[in-house]
Design the sequence.
Protein backbone atom coordinates (compact mmCIF):
# COMPACT_ATOMS: atom_id res chain seq x y z
CA UNK A 1 0.00 0.00 0.00
CA UNK A 2 1.24 3.49 -0.85
CA UNK A 3 2.08 5.71 2.12
CA UNK A 4 -0.83 8.10 1.38
CA UNK A 5 -3.21 5.16 1.16
CA UNK A 6 -1.87 3.69 4.38
CA UNK A 7 -2.26 7.03 6.19
CA UNK A 8 -5.74 7.44 4.83
CA UNK A 9 -6.73 3.97 5.96
CA UNK A 10 -5.21 4.58 9.38
CA UNK A 11 -7.03 7.90 9.73
CA UNK A 12 -10.31 6.27 8.75
CA UNK A 13 -9.75 3.49 11.25
CA UNK A 14 -8.90 5.98 13.97
CA UNK A 15 -11.88 8.21 13.23
CA UNK A 16 -14.11 5.18 13.05
CA UNK A 17 -12.90 4.06 16.44
CA UNK A 18 -13.73 7.45 17.91
CA UNK A 19 -17.11 7.49 16.16
CA UNK A 20 -18.00 4.20 17.82
CA UNK A 21 -16.33 5.24 21.03
CA UNK A 22 -19.05 5.78 23.57
CA UNK A 23 -17.51 5.10 26.96
CA UNK A 24 -17.91 1.64 28.41
CA UNK A 25 -20.56 1.66 31.14
CA UNK A 26 -19.32 1.48 34.69
CA UNK A 27 -19.44 -1.99 36.21
CA UNK A 28 -22.58 -2.33 38.26
CA UNK A 29 -21.93 -1.84 41.97
CA UNK A 30 -22.99 -4.65 44.28
CA UNK A 31 -24.31 -2.23 46.88
CA UNK A 32 -26.24 1.03 46.93
CA UNK A 33 -24.62 3.91 48.75
CA UNK A 34 -26.54 6.17 51.07
CA UNK A 35 -26.38 8.94 48.48
CA UNK A 36 -27.79 6.57 45.83
CA UNK A 37 -30.75 5.89 48.10
CA UNK A 38 -31.23 9.61 48.76
CA UNK A 39 -31.02 10.68 45.12
CA UNK A 40 -33.21 7.84 43.79
CA UNK A 41 -35.76 7.48 46.58
CA UNK A 42 -35.85 9.74 49.61
CA UNK A 43 -34.88 13.12 48.16
CA UNK A 44 -38.51 14.26 48.32
CA UNK A 45 -38.16 14.52 52.10
CA UNK A 46 -35.84 17.49 51.44
CA UNK A 47 -38.04 19.24 48.87
CA UNK A 48 -38.44 22.94 49.58
CA UNK A 49 -35.86 22.92 52.38
CA UNK A 50 -32.49 24.66 52.43
CA UNK A 51 -29.71 22.09 52.11
CA UNK A 52 -26.02 22.39 52.96
CA UNK A 53 -23.64 19.70 51.71
CA UNK A 54 -20.43 18.68 53.46
CA UNK A 55 -18.41 16.88 50.81
CA UNK A 56 -15.17 16.56 48.94
CA UNK A 57 -14.23 14.81 45.71
CA UNK A 58 -15.11 11.42 47.23
CA UNK A 59 -18.74 12.44 47.74
CA UNK A 60 -20.05 10.75 44.61
CA UNK A 61 -22.79 8.27 43.85
CA UNK A 62 -21.99 4.77 42.61
CA UNK A 63 -22.27 6.26 39.11
CA UNK A 64 -19.49 8.77 40.00
CA UNK A 65 -21.77 11.79 39.93
CA UNK A 66 -21.01 14.30 42.66
CA UNK A 67 -23.71 14.50 45.28
CA UNK A 68 -24.04 18.24 44.62
CA UNK A 69 -24.70 17.71 40.90
CA UNK A 70 -27.05 14.82 41.60
CA UNK A 71 -29.11 16.92 44.00
CA UNK A 72 -29.21 19.90 41.66
CA UNK A 73 -30.92 17.71 39.06
CA UNK A 74 -33.84 17.57 41.48
CA UNK A 75 -35.41 20.93 40.73
CA UNK A 76 -37.31 21.07 44.02
CA UNK A 77 -34.08 20.86 46.04
CA UNK A 78 -32.07 23.91 46.99
CA UNK A 79 -28.38 23.39 47.69
CA UNK A 80 -27.51 26.68 49.33
CA UNK A 81 -23.94 26.01 50.48
CA UNK A 82 -21.08 23.53 50.31
CA UNK A 83 -18.78 22.90 53.26
CA UNK A 84 -15.24 21.74 52.49
CA UNK A 85 -12.94 19.74 54.80
CA UNK A 86 -9.15 19.40 54.62
CA UNK A 87 -7.98 19.25 50.97
CA UNK A 88 -10.97 21.34 49.80
CA UNK A 89 -14.23 20.49 48.04
CA UNK A 90 -12.53 19.12 44.94
CA UNK A 91 -9.52 17.63 46.75
CA UNK A 92 -7.00 20.01 45.22
CA UNK A 93 -5.42 21.35 48.44
CA UNK A 94 -2.35 19.83 50.10
CA UNK A 95 -2.49 18.02 53.43
CA UNK A 96 -2.38 20.43 56.36
CA UNK A 97 -2.85 23.48 54.12
CA UNK A 98 -5.37 26.03 55.40
CA UNK A 99 -8.34 26.19 53.05
CA UNK A 100 -10.06 29.53 52.48
CA UNK A 101 -13.76 29.93 51.68
CA UNK A 102 -14.63 30.62 48.06
CA UNK A 103 -17.31 30.23 45.36
CA UNK A 104 -17.24 26.97 43.43
CA UNK A 105 -16.60 27.87 39.79
CA UNK A 106 -18.63 24.98 38.37
CA UNK A 107 -21.81 25.42 40.38
CA UNK A 108 -21.68 29.01 41.62
CA UNK A 109 -22.46 27.74 45.12
CA UNK A 110 -20.53 29.27 48.03
CA UNK A 111 -17.99 26.91 49.58
CA UNK A 112 -17.26 27.44 53.26
CA UNK A 113 -14.00 26.03 54.55
CA UNK A 114 -14.03 23.76 57.59
CA UNK A 115 -10.24 23.57 57.52
CA UNK A 116 -9.29 27.18 58.01
CA UNK A 117 -10.07 29.81 60.60
CA UNK A 118 -13.25 27.93 61.53
CA UNK A 119 -13.75 24.17 61.86
CA UNK A 120 -17.35 24.42 63.08
CA UNK A 121 -20.02 25.78 60.71
CA UNK A 122 -21.08 29.12 62.14
CA UNK A 123 -24.55 30.58 62.46
CA UNK A 124 -23.82 32.86 59.49
CA UNK A 125 -22.70 29.90 57.33
CA UNK A 126 -25.87 28.02 58.25
CA UNK A 127 -28.28 30.87 57.53
CA UNK A 128 -31.14 29.59 55.38
CA UNK A 129 -30.06 25.97 55.80
CA UNK A 130 -32.46 23.46 57.33
CA UNK A 131 -30.52 20.23 56.73
CA UNK A 132 -26.80 19.45 56.58
CA UNK A 133 -25.85 16.44 54.45
CA UNK A 134 -22.53 14.68 55.03
CA UNK A 135 -21.15 12.64 52.12
CA UNK A 136 -17.43 11.89 52.46
CA UNK A 137 -15.70 8.53 52.08
CA UNK A 138 -13.93 7.46 55.26
CA UNK A 139 -10.80 5.25 55.32
CA UNK A 140 -11.37 3.19 58.48
CA UNK A 141 -8.73 4.85 60.66
CA UNK A 142 -9.50 6.94 63.75
CA UNK A 143 -6.63 9.27 62.83
CA UNK A 144 -8.32 10.89 59.85
CA UNK A 145 -9.57 14.46 60.06
CA UNK A 146 -12.78 13.97 58.04
CA UNK A 147 -14.28 12.06 60.97
CA UNK A 148 -13.56 15.05 63.23
CA UNK A 149 -15.03 17.40 60.62
CA UNK A 150 -18.26 15.39 60.78
CA UNK A 151 -18.33 15.54 64.57
CA UNK A 152 -17.76 19.31 64.63
CA UNK A 153 -20.47 19.86 62.02
CA UNK A 154 -22.85 17.72 64.09
CA UNK A 155 -22.11 19.93 67.10
CA UNK A 156 -23.03 23.02 65.09
CA UNK A 157 -26.19 21.35 63.82
CA UNK A 158 -27.16 20.57 67.39
CA UNK A 159 -26.39 24.09 68.58
CA UNK A 160 -28.31 25.86 65.82
CA UNK A 161 -31.24 23.44 65.50
CA UNK A 162 -30.41 21.96 62.09
CA UNK A 163 -31.01 18.39 61.00
CA UNK A 164 -27.89 16.36 60.21
CA UNK A 165 -28.08 13.61 57.59
CA UNK A 166 -25.23 11.17 56.99
CA UNK A 167 -25.24 9.44 53.61
CA UNK A 168 -23.61 6.22 54.65
CA UNK A 169 -20.66 4.67 52.83
CA UNK A 170 -18.60 1.47 53.26
CA UNK A 171 -15.64 1.13 55.55
CA UNK A 172 -13.06 0.14 52.90
CA UNK A 173 -11.12 -2.01 55.39
CA UNK A 174 -14.24 -3.94 56.42
CA UNK A 175 -16.63 -3.93 59.31
CA UNK A 176 -15.31 -6.79 61.43
CA UNK A 177 -11.68 -6.14 62.41
CA UNK A 178 -11.02 -3.83 65.36
CA UNK A 179 -7.47 -2.92 66.41
CA UNK A 180 -6.18 -0.70 69.22
CA UNK A 181 -5.15 1.46 70.76
CA UNK A 182 -8.30 3.19 71.95
CA UNK A 183 -7.73 6.92 72.26
CA UNK A 184 -7.31 8.17 75.81
CA UNK A 185 -9.17 11.45 76.55
CA UNK A 186 -5.95 13.27 77.51
CA UNK A 187 -4.82 13.02 73.88
CA UNK A 188 -7.96 14.35 72.24
CA UNK A 189 -7.19 16.43 69.13
CA UNK A 190 -8.52 17.15 65.64
CA UNK A 191 -6.73 13.94 64.58
CA UNK A 192 -8.80 11.97 67.08
CA UNK A 193 -11.68 13.41 69.11
CA UNK A 194 -13.21 10.46 70.91
CA UNK A 195 -12.05 7.26 72.66
CA UNK A 196 -12.51 4.83 69.79
CA UNK A 197 -10.10 2.23 68.45
CA UNK A 198 -7.50 3.12 65.86
CA UNK A 199 -9.07 0.61 63.47
CA UNK A 200 -12.71 0.97 64.47
CA UNK A 201 -14.44 -1.24 61.89
CA UNK A 202 -17.45 1.09 61.65
CA UNK A 203 -19.10 2.98 58.80
CA UNK A 204 -19.30 6.75 58.88
CA UNK A 205 -23.00 6.52 59.68
CA UNK A 206 -22.35 4.17 62.58
CA UNK A 207 -19.68 6.52 63.92
CA UNK A 208 -22.18 9.38 63.71
CA UNK A 209 -24.64 7.42 65.83
CA UNK A 210 -21.94 6.64 68.40
CA UNK A 211 -20.76 10.25 68.56
CA UNK A 212 -24.27 11.64 68.73
CA UNK A 213 -25.58 9.35 71.45
CA UNK A 214 -22.73 8.02 73.58
CA UNK A 215 -20.54 11.10 73.36
CA UNK A 216 -23.45 13.46 73.80
CA UNK A 217 -23.59 15.65 70.67
CA UNK A 218 -27.37 15.44 70.60
CA UNK A 219 -28.04 16.48 66.99
CA UNK A 220 -31.21 15.65 65.07
CA UNK A 221 -29.42 12.81 63.29
CA UNK A 222 -30.67 10.79 60.35
CA UNK A 223 -28.50 8.13 58.67
CA UNK A 224 -29.43 7.15 55.12
CA UNK A 225 -28.34 3.52 55.16
CA UNK A 226 -26.68 1.63 52.34
CA UNK A 227 -28.38 -1.31 50.70
CA UNK A 228 -26.55 -4.61 50.35
CA UNK A 229 -23.43 -3.84 52.36
CA UNK A 230 -22.23 -6.51 54.78
CA UNK A 231 -19.63 -6.26 57.52
CA UNK A 232 -17.40 -8.87 55.91
CA UNK A 233 -16.98 -6.74 52.78
CA UNK A 234 -13.77 -4.89 52.02
CA UNK A 235 -13.73 -2.35 49.21
CA UNK A 236 -13.39 -4.62 46.12
CA UNK A 237 -16.35 -6.70 47.30
CA UNK A 238 -18.60 -3.69 46.67
CA UNK A 239 -17.56 -3.31 42.98
CA UNK A 240 -17.53 0.46 43.57
CA UNK A 241 -14.96 2.66 41.88
CA UNK A 242 -12.45 4.22 44.27
CA UNK A 243 -12.12 8.00 44.26
CA UNK A 244 -9.06 9.15 46.16
CA UNK A 245 -10.12 10.51 49.51
CA UNK A 246 -7.04 12.72 49.90
CA UNK A 247 -3.78 13.21 47.97
CA UNK A 248 -1.99 10.43 49.86
CA UNK A 249 -4.83 7.90 49.59
CA UNK A 250 -5.06 7.32 45.83
CA UNK A 251 -6.24 3.67 45.94
CA UNK A 252 -8.39 1.49 48.16
CA UNK A 253 -5.33 -0.64 48.92
CA UNK A 254 -3.73 2.44 50.48
CA UNK A 255 -6.30 2.39 53.28
CA UNK A 256 -4.77 -0.81 54.65
CA UNK A 257 -1.21 0.53 54.40
CA UNK A 258 -2.34 3.80 56.02
CA UNK A 259 -3.52 1.90 59.10
CA UNK A 260 -0.01 0.44 59.40
CA UNK A 261 2.49 3.14 58.52
CA UNK A 262 0.32 6.26 58.70
CA UNK A 263 1.49 7.19 62.21
CA UNK A 264 5.14 6.17 62.26
CA UNK A 265 6.51 9.45 60.93
CA UNK A 266 6.66 11.05 64.37
CA UNK A 267 8.91 8.20 65.45
CA UNK A 268 11.42 9.40 62.84
CA UNK A 269 10.46 6.86 60.15
CA UNK A 270 9.48 7.98 56.66
CA UNK A 271 6.32 6.22 55.47
CA UNK A 272 6.55 6.90 51.76
CA UNK A 273 4.53 10.11 51.73
CA UNK A 274 6.05 12.45 49.20
CA UNK A 275 6.90 9.47 46.99
CA UNK A 276 5.01 7.41 44.43
CA UNK A 277 3.35 4.92 46.81
CA UNK A 278 2.47 6.73 50.02
CA UNK A 279 2.30 4.52 53.12
CA UNK A 280 3.76 1.46 51.39
CA UNK A 281 7.30 2.28 52.55
CA UNK A 282 9.00 2.50 55.92
CA UNK A 283 12.59 3.56 56.44
CA UNK A 284 15.10 6.30 56.92
CA UNK A 285 18.69 7.37 56.27
CA UNK A 286 20.59 4.88 58.41
CA UNK A 287 18.52 1.72 57.87
CA UNK A 288 19.65 -1.43 56.10
CA UNK A 289 16.58 -2.48 54.15
CA UNK A 290 17.65 -6.06 53.56
CA UNK A 291 18.32 -6.62 57.25
CA UNK A 292 15.03 -5.02 58.29
CA UNK A 293 13.07 -7.04 55.71
CA UNK A 294 14.66 -10.30 56.83
CA UNK A 295 13.85 -9.55 60.46
CA UNK A 296 10.22 -8.64 59.76
CA UNK A 297 9.57 -11.55 57.42
CA UNK A 298 10.89 -13.91 60.10
CA UNK A 299 8.09 -12.63 62.31
CA UNK A 300 5.59 -14.26 59.91
CA UNK A 301 3.07 -11.43 60.15
CA UNK A 302 -0.26 -12.32 58.51
CA UNK A 303 -1.06 -10.97 55.06
CA UNK A 304 2.10 -8.94 54.45
CA UNK A 305 5.61 -9.43 53.08
CA UNK A 306 8.46 -6.96 53.33
CA UNK A 307 11.13 -6.37 50.71
CA UNK A 308 14.21 -4.18 50.82
CA UNK A 309 13.70 -0.86 49.07
CA UNK A 310 15.32 2.51 48.46
CA UNK A 311 13.56 5.75 47.55
CA UNK A 312 13.91 9.51 47.56
CA UNK A 313 10.80 11.57 48.42
CA UNK A 314 9.93 14.34 46.02
CA UNK A 315 8.28 16.60 48.61
CA UNK A 316 7.93 17.14 52.33
CA UNK A 317 10.43 16.98 55.18
CA UNK A 318 12.43 14.15 53.54
CA UNK A 319 12.57 15.72 50.08
CA UNK A 320 15.56 14.59 47.96
CA UNK A 321 17.09 12.51 50.76
CA UNK A 322 18.21 9.00 49.89
CA UNK A 323 16.24 6.65 52.11
CA UNK A 324 16.32 2.91 52.57
CA UNK A 325 14.11 0.46 54.37
CA UNK A 326 11.25 -1.80 53.35
CA UNK A 327 8.30 -1.79 50.99
CA UNK A 328 5.09 -3.44 52.18
CA UNK A 329 3.49 -6.03 49.94
CA UNK A 330 0.04 -6.54 51.46
CA UNK A 331 -0.97 -9.72 49.65
CA UNK A 332 -4.00 -10.59 51.80
CA UNK A 333 -5.89 -7.59 53.11
CA UNK A 334 -8.40 -9.76 54.98
CA UNK A 335 -5.82 -11.32 57.26
CA UNK A 336 -3.49 -8.30 57.49
CA UNK A 337 -3.36 -6.95 61.05
CA UNK A 338 -2.31 -3.45 60.16
CA UNK A 339 -1.84 -1.69 63.51
CA UNK A 340 0.00 -4.59 65.21
CA UNK A 341 2.23 -4.70 62.11
CA UNK A 342 3.09 -1.03 62.67
CA UNK A 343 4.18 -1.83 66.23
CA UNK A 344 6.24 -4.77 64.97
CA UNK A 345 7.93 -2.44 62.50
CA UNK A 346 8.81 0.16 65.12
CA UNK A 347 10.10 -2.48 67.54
CA UNK A 348 12.23 -3.97 64.75
CA UNK A 349 13.78 -0.58 63.96
CA UNK A 350 14.43 -0.01 67.65
CA UNK A 351 16.17 -3.38 67.92
CA UNK A 352 18.24 -3.17 64.73
CA UNK A 353 18.80 0.57 64.18
CA UNK A 354 18.11 2.36 67.46
CA UNK A 355 19.67 5.61 66.24
CA UNK A 356 17.08 5.79 63.45
CA UNK A 357 14.23 6.25 65.94
CA UNK A 358 13.78 9.93 66.65
CA UNK A 359 10.62 10.11 68.69
CA UNK A 360 8.68 13.38 68.90
CA UNK A 361 6.94 12.54 72.15
CA UNK A 362 4.03 14.98 72.12
CA UNK A 363 3.25 14.40 68.44
CA UNK A 364 3.57 10.62 68.62
CA UNK A 365 1.33 10.43 71.70
CA UNK A 366 -1.25 12.70 70.06
CA UNK A 367 -1.27 10.66 66.84
CA UNK A 368 -1.64 7.31 68.59
CA UNK A 369 -3.98 8.66 71.26
CA UNK A 370 -1.87 7.18 74.02
CA UNK A 371 1.57 7.42 75.60
CA UNK A 372 1.78 3.63 75.94
CA UNK A 373 3.32 3.04 72.51
CA UNK A 374 6.15 5.48 73.13
CA UNK A 375 6.68 4.26 76.67
CA UNK A 376 6.73 0.65 75.52
CA UNK A 377 9.28 1.40 72.83
CA UNK A 378 11.54 3.24 75.26
CA UNK A 379 11.18 0.51 77.90
CA UNK A 380 12.27 -2.20 75.48
CA UNK A 381 8.92 -4.01 75.44
CA UNK A 382 8.12 -6.52 72.72
CA UNK A 383 5.52 -5.71 70.07
CA UNK A 384 3.20 -8.35 71.55
CA UNK A 385 3.46 -6.81 75.02
CA UNK A 386 2.64 -3.34 73.69
CA UNK A 387 -0.37 -4.57 71.71
CA UNK A 388 -1.60 -6.80 74.55
CA UNK A 389 -1.60 -3.75 76.81
CA UNK A 390 -4.46 -2.35 74.71
CA UNK A 391 -6.61 -5.50 74.80
CA UNK A 392 -8.83 -4.47 77.72
CA UNK A 393 -9.82 -1.11 76.24
CA UNK A 394 -10.30 -2.68 72.81
CA UNK A 395 -12.74 -5.25 74.23
CA UNK A 396 -14.67 -2.50 76.00
CA UNK A 397 -14.87 -0.54 72.77
CA UNK A 398 -16.13 -3.61 70.89
CA UNK A 399 -18.91 -3.98 73.45
CA UNK A 400 -19.82 -0.30 73.14
CA UNK A 401 -19.85 -0.24 69.34
CA UNK A 402 -22.27 -3.18 69.15
CA UNK A 403 -25.08 -0.80 70.14
CA UNK A 404 -24.44 1.39 67.10
CA UNK A 405 -23.86 -1.10 64.29
CA UNK A 406 -26.41 -0.71 61.50
CA UNK A 407 -25.51 -3.74 59.37
Sequence:
Amino acid sequence: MRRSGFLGATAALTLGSFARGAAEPLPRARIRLGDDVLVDETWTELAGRGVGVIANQSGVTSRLETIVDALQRRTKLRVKAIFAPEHGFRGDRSAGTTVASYVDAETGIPVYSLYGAARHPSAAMLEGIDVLLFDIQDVGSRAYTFVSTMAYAMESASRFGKEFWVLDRPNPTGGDAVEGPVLEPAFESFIGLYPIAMRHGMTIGELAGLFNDHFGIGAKLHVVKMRGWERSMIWPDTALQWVQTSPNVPTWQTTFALLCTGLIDNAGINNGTGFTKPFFYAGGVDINGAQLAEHLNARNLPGVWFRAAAWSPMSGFWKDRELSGVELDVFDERSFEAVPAAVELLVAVRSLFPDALRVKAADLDRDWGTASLREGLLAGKSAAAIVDGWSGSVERFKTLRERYLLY
Summary: The first helix runs from residue 3 to 20.
